[in-house]
Amino acid sequence: MNVATLFDTMHAPAVSMLIYVTLFLISLLTVISNLLVIITVCHFKKLHSPTNILLLSLAVLDCMVGFLISFQIMLIDGCWYLGDIMCSLYFVSDYAITSASVGTMVLISVDRYVAICHPLHYPSKVTAERAKICVIACWISSVLFHSLLLRNNLQKPGRYNSCFGECAVVVDYIGGIFDLLLSFIGPVTVIIILYVRVFVVVVAQARAMQSHVADVSLQSSVSVTAKKSEMKAAVILGVVVVVFLICTCPYYCVTLMAEDDGVSASSVAFLLFYFNSTLNPLIYALFYPWFRKSVKLIVTLQILKQGSGDTNII
């Protein structure tokens, strides 16, 4: 399977400029938004929970994706100026970071599943130390797997380039299938199953609250609260799953078509795939009120005050 850069052909100046500006804005927004999440979770001690450790891992990975997007600016017209070694390292980093990001999303879904479906066991099963171990294991396994997957490209950088200035790597067919299964199909299946299970439990609990209300005077308020909770859970879970699938499915579908038909990957699918890293802070962090509070403290430089890390923003 040939994994060439997206922008492997010459474009009109106006088109190149449009792509350049789009990539630059996505890169900038991705880095800034994820840096806000990183600073927030690291600075405020009250946020050092297992769930937030996973959010921190995702933010760090997505921030790296933002930096990687900037390298694509060099490839708008198909020319790579950093050499063959950097080309191979770029692709290995790209694959590993993207895979680790998807793996972290799986860990987040497992965390939410245990918290909602098995709340009594959550404090003992899910701890900050275990979350850190899972994150480290996810990162290391992603780097090792994709280093092995692209070993031929790392052993002899530039071996698959057809001309000077090209940046292309090749993954064998079996390796490509394994990568597709481990980096997309498997994680997506796990995420959907767990989130559907969580949604079913949340809806069941909300309905149980409505049917077991003894105080008639409180019936109305409890009913409203239960409905709001049900709708909020539906919205959050729907956004998490739908946005992830919308951003990733087109890219992998186009990639499979490219394998069979020899067509190049769509620019829109590629940009959408990376734009998921820009949306992740909004999906996983902006739903939390403490994030909005922390952004205000960061922007106003209140976090520079002594003892600000002990501030209770939850």
TrEMBL record:
Major subcellular site: membrane
Coiled-coil intervals, chain numbering: none
Subcellular localization(s) per the UniProt record: Cell membrane
Any one annotated GO CC term: plasma membrane
TM helices/strands, residue ranges: 17-41, 53-76, 88-110, 131-150, 180-204, 233-258, 270-291
Matches recorded under CDD domains: 7tmA_TAARs
Membrane topology note: Multi-pass membrane protein
Highest taxon in the source lineage: Eukaryota
Residues of the G-protein coupled receptors family 1 profile domain: 33-284
Family designation: Belongs to the G-protein coupled receptor 1 family.
Protein's UniProt name: G-protein coupled receptors family 1 profile domain-containing protein
UniProt organism field: Cyprinodon variegatus (Sheepshead minnow)
